[in-house]
Amino acid sequence: MPGGGGSERAVALRDESVTTEGKQEGKPNKAEATEVPAAVTYTPIGVIHSEHRRPQETPIQPVYARGCKGWAEILPQYAEGLKDLDGFSHLLLLYHFHRAGEPQLTVVPFTDNQPRGLFSTRHPRRPNPIGLSLVRLVRVEGTILHLDDVDILDGTPLLDIKPYVPRFERAENATGGWTETVDDSTASRRGRRGFQAGRGQP
Amino acid sequence: MPGGGGSERAVALRDESVTTEGKQEGKPNKAEATEVPAAVTYTPIGVIHSEHRRPQETPIQPVYARGCKGWAEILPQYAEGLKDLDGFSHLLLLYHFHRAGEPQLTVVPFTDNQPRGLFSTRHPRRPNPIGLSLVRLVRVEGTILHLDDVDILDGTPLLDIKPYVPRFERAENATGGWTETVDDSTASRRGRRGFQAGRGQP
């Protein structure tokens, strides 16, 4: 994740910045105040299309959206950046949850019935409502990316496309916290929500 | 990724919006123009700290940053949202590449010597410079998240924290496009960059 130059492009500093004190003993920067930029601004690179029009009938994750086709329409000025994508089977899409509503720091996850801390969930009502979906790339056709396993509402603004690189995405011995208290079949039933498998590809 | 309400919070529509025409035959919305919001604005929820001060010596991915300790300092107003995080072994951090420099649609990846389309790489010079790292969560201490496998520059603004949920992150039969033309040991050597293993934990 290193950066090249020193430009602060796309960082829109507001009048006030938020300052926190580094409180960690024996850590770098312990005596320095940390300046947090008050806002960053991004411009969508395209739009995601799917058969999902109603949030309450939209699968909550790609793993519960097998057979849900969709496509991403990339603005023409970004076409050059799509080169070499076609060899990848999966993409990580970052997008703006444009219908998330107000953020909530405690939510009841769609797969659970207990209130949980927002950051321990993938719920859309986040302070910064950025969505992340691991979708299958079916085909690239000009500036259209044909997708499968799409758990994303029709009309969602797309912020970034990252290739899924198998050697980068390994998490060894991962444990899933509270999600392990919900069995796979219950999670799947709740996670699919109103989505009917027959509506998409079998 | 469904949303609840209909509020457009955090979407800052500029005077002009970008309009594209749906060109897909037989797809939803084929006759409708798609409105892409021209900008979205996010406010960082905290800052990431690490031993990495120089972009050119920072590992390019967590898989090449084993033993690189760091921590995320979350602003106190988001403390409630951290509940239940402590059962997870891994987190997906979304952050702003604050030193990425100007975007480039064609880049030479750090692990390769060929120019590639930006969106087929994880290079930071992205139109929307959002970084994604899969890090290990060592311990939660109040609003401090102690982390390992940190490939993130010290002082990076944090935008979101998502739990790594093993059942959500599966990509079956994934293929890695051009990245498969670079062997693992070459990718590892290039990917670690100037990082010296001895500087962090063994």
Structure at a glance:
Chain A is mostly beta strands. Chain A has one helix spanning 184-192, and strands at residues 18-21, 33-36, 40-42, 46-50, 70-74, 90-96, 106-107, 116-117, 130-141, 144-148, 156-163. Strand 3 (40-42) of chain A pairs antiparallel with strand 3 of chain B, so a sheet runs across the interface.
What would your notes on this structure say?
Two copies of one chain form a homodimer. Chain A is mainly beta and 202 residues long. Chain A has a single domain (46-169, 176-195), classed as Elongation Factor Tu (Ef-tu), domain 3 (Beta Barrel). Chain A has one helix spanning 184-192, and strands at residues 18-21, 33-36, 40-42, 46-50, 70-74, 90-96, 106-107, 116-117, 130-141, 144-148, 156-163. In chain A, the strands form three sheets. In chain A, strands 4-5-10-9-6-11 form a six-stranded antiparallel β-barrel. A two-stranded antiparallel ribbon of chain A has the order 1-2. A two-stranded antiparallel ribbon of chain A has the order 7-8. In chain A, a hairpin with an 8-residue loop joins strand 7 (106-107) and strand 8. The radius of gyration of chain A is 19 Å and the shape is globular. Chains A and B meet through strand 2, strand 3, strand 4, strand 6 and strand 8 of A and strand 2, strand 3, strand 4, strand 6 and strand 8 of B.
